[in-house]
Specification:
It is a single chain. This protein is of the alpha/beta class and about 600 residues long. It has four domains: about 1-180, no CATH class; about 215-220 and about 235-305, no CATH class; about 330-365 and about 415-605, 3-Layer(aba) Sandwich (Rossmann fold); about 370-415, no CATH class. Helices cover about 35% and strands about 15% of the residues. It has 18 helices and 21 strands. The strands form six sheets. Strands 10, 11, 12, 16, 17, 18, 19, 20 and 21 form a nine-stranded mixed sheet that branches. Helix 2 packs parallel to helix 4 (about 95-115), helix 4 (about 95-115) packs across helix 6 and helix 13 packs parallel to helix 18 (about 595-605). The longest helix has 19 residues, at about 440-460.
């Protein structure tokens, strides 16, 4: 009973202390795509996006109810970094939905004028100048900003009558919100002012820099799969690792109920980390350290790599390709090595029996669209005589008007479509993920390649198939499934069936190599079809915006070479980044991975301009 009363009391006090307006809340997830479009339309970097910001601790003044409820310490504010604009996940500052939506639009306009993240020392002055510049550039936003500023100032507490640093700062902040051009400078004061939702905050930096590392493997991002990936940025600092082997252990002997309860366990290093992602989500500050046992984890990664006798067969030493570094705005020459590989142990296999009914239907459908042979009439030479031309020539000769060289023959000619397609399939370790109790993503990719190959072979189109994965920039694997010279048959089907997931997704290098292969085909229409299940990533710095911008630059090179890139993905977050990479109409998002074998041939027909 006492516990229930305490819970109800806590909920009551927390609700009374809350200054937000949940009845008029606007979820950022709903409006983020529209805001990202506006951000880019206003001239911001096309690579910037709109994402949720985590709460940060601010030493702001708190009301007595907030102190009683233990709230008011953490606030989600807006800020801008190199990757994009960070907004609160829920916009509920105002009691009207229209004002909360307008707040998101205003912050987007403000971020589009910000050349870089704001400084922490002159935060208020930087925002005043930024607001004035934004209003000058977009005078149509003056009415919206005026409503937001007046409403928010009415929500803020009135400055105390007694003169104090906090009171003078609050009065100057309110004046700066209402008149950003003419307001005086905001004086400093102890602590932080109440959050200003109409301004951008500085980026939170780590408390101390990362210690130097002598191992390049430590530069890789955390491997996905063991728990949910963190979606929020966290403050972090590096600390010394406590090995549990030194120091003084102090305890009261009488606190032990029995000697058998003592377990000499190093809790700092040996605890189970299966819930690490959930725990990290709840922490405000992450403490990172270089574990002395890190070599064992690196050894486990190396053990996952097959030996040369068990790995796929390399077809040469590979070739060096460039990579785009968006931070330097330069193409790094000879930065990646792409190694062509042939699946080891691939034996000729027939089409799996479960796919034969679907393959038969696709073959019949594509064969009906295959270019038909036609007869060319009135030719100088050919297969058979053209009877109509012979009669006309006889009449003209009797009339004395016969041509010098009679055209009396018919010749059969096949009208071939000038088209070539290269299918590039993602074979990274993420394709090992299960989609149901019996199937994985890689199974869906194999089935899709089988059925698409049957369809394209029946349609008579020139096509090739490759898979790709990577292990840092010096080992980008390009698995040969079928080149343009190979005939579709049991040997190629065996290669498809032998595909296995592994490694990472250095997408830019694979696209550049595919561009060279497909660019060598003398075809008027050249389609580069990419099958993937996630973002570009690798063990080194190829993560986040670096990988995205390199992939985008590789796709731009493909378009300049006359190729038509198109992406089919099952990544449910792809709508956030694929428009930036491929364009608004050059990708297709599948809600269910199981639909890929059925949808892929239909997409091919639409992309090549043939009736579905």
């Amino acid at each position: 009973m006492e516990e229930q009363v305490g819970i109800r009391w806590h909920h009551l006090v927390t609700r009374l202390a809350d200054t937000r307006h949940p009845q008029a809340a606007v979820m950022l997830e709903r409006i983020a795509p529209r805001l990202a479009t506006v951000l880019r339309a206003l001239g911001a970097d096309p690579g910037l996006g709109v994402r949720a910001s985590p709460e940060r601790r601010l030493a702001t003044p708190r009301r007595w109810l907030q102190k009683l409820a233990g709230t008011g310490r953490r606030h989600a504010v807006a800020w801008r970094d190199d990757d994009g604009l960070r907004l609160p996940p829920v916009l509920d500052t105002f009691d009207q939905i229209a004002l909360n939506e307008g707040l998101g639009l205003w912050l987007v306009a403000l971020a589009s004028r910000a050349p870089a993240p704001g400084p922490a020392d002159d935060w208020a002055g930087w925002n005043r100048r930024l607001v004035a510049q934004t209003l000058d550039d977009y005078p149509g936003l003056a009415e919206l900003y005026g409503r937001l500023a007046r409403t928010h100032v009415a929500q803020r507490p009135r400055p105390a009558l007694q003169e104090s640093d906090g009171s003078r700062r609050e009065a100057a902040l309110q004046a700066a919100l209402l008149e950003p051009r003419d307001a005086p400078a905001v004086p400093p004061a102890a602590g932080d002012p109440l959050p200003v939702p109409l301004w951008l905050y500085p980026v939170e930096a780590a408390d101390n820099a990362r210690p130097p590392s002598d191992d390049a493997a430590e530069e890789r991002p955390a491997a996905a799969g063991a728990g949910q990936q963190l979606r929020q940025r966290k403050r972090a600092s590096y600390v010394d690792d406590i090995d549990g082997r030194s120091g003084l252990l102090v305890f009261r002997l009488e606190s032990l109920f029995s000697w058998s309860e003592f377990i000499p366990l190093d809790r700092t290093a040996d605890d189970d980390d299966t819930d690490a992602a959930r725990v990290a989500e709840d922490l405000d500050h992450l403490s990172l350290s270089r574990k002395r046992s890190a070599s064992s984890s690196r050894l486990r990664v190396d053990l996952d790599l097959p030996s040369a006798t068990e790995d796929d067969i390399p077809l040469g030493e590979g070739r060096l390709l460039p990579e785009w570094d968006w931070r330097k705005a330069a193409l790094l020459p000879d930065h990646c090595r792409v190694v062509p590989m042939l699946p080891r142990g691939a034996t000729p296999l027939p089409l799996p029996a479960r796919l034969q009914p679907a393959a038969t239907r696709l073959r019949q459908r594509f064969e009906s669209l295959r270019p038909q042979k036609s007869w060319l009439r009135r030719q100088a030479d050919g297969d058979v005589l053209d009877l109509s031309a012979c009669v006309d020539f006889s009449v003209q000769r009797q009339l004395g008007s016969a041509p010098g060289q009679p055209l009396l023959w018919r010749r059969q000619s096949a009208q071939q479509r000038d088209l070539a397609c290269l299918v590039l399939a993602d074979l990274s370790l993420s394709t090992e993920a299960a989609i149901d109790d019996e199937h994985q993503v890689i199974d869906v990719i194999r089935d899709s390649l089988h059925l698409l190959g049957e369809a394209l072979d029946a349609g008579g189109d020139a096509f090739s198939m490759y898979g790709f994965s990577s292990r840092r920039r010096d080992h980008v694997r390009l698995s040969l499934i079928k080149n343009f010279a190979d005939a579709w048959g049991d040997e190629v089907r065996g290669r498809v069936q032998s595909l296995r997931p592994g490694y990472y997704t250095r997408m830019g290098a694979a696209i550049r190599q595919a561009t060279e292969i497909l660019g060598g085909q003398a075809a008027e229409q050249r389609l580069l079809l990419l099958l993937t299940d996630g973002k570009p990533n690798d063990l080194d710095l190829y993560e986040g915006r670096y990988g995205m911008e390199d992939t985008r630059h590789a796709l731009m090179e493909a378009r300049r070479a006359g190729l038509q890139p198109f992406c089919v993905t099952i990544d449910q977050e792809a709508a956030d980044y694929l428009p930036h990479l491929f364009g608004a109409q050059r990708f297709h998002l599948l809600r269910r991975a199981q639909d890929l074998p059925r949808v892929l041939p239909q997409l091919y027909l639409l992309l090549t301009g043939r009736s579905p």
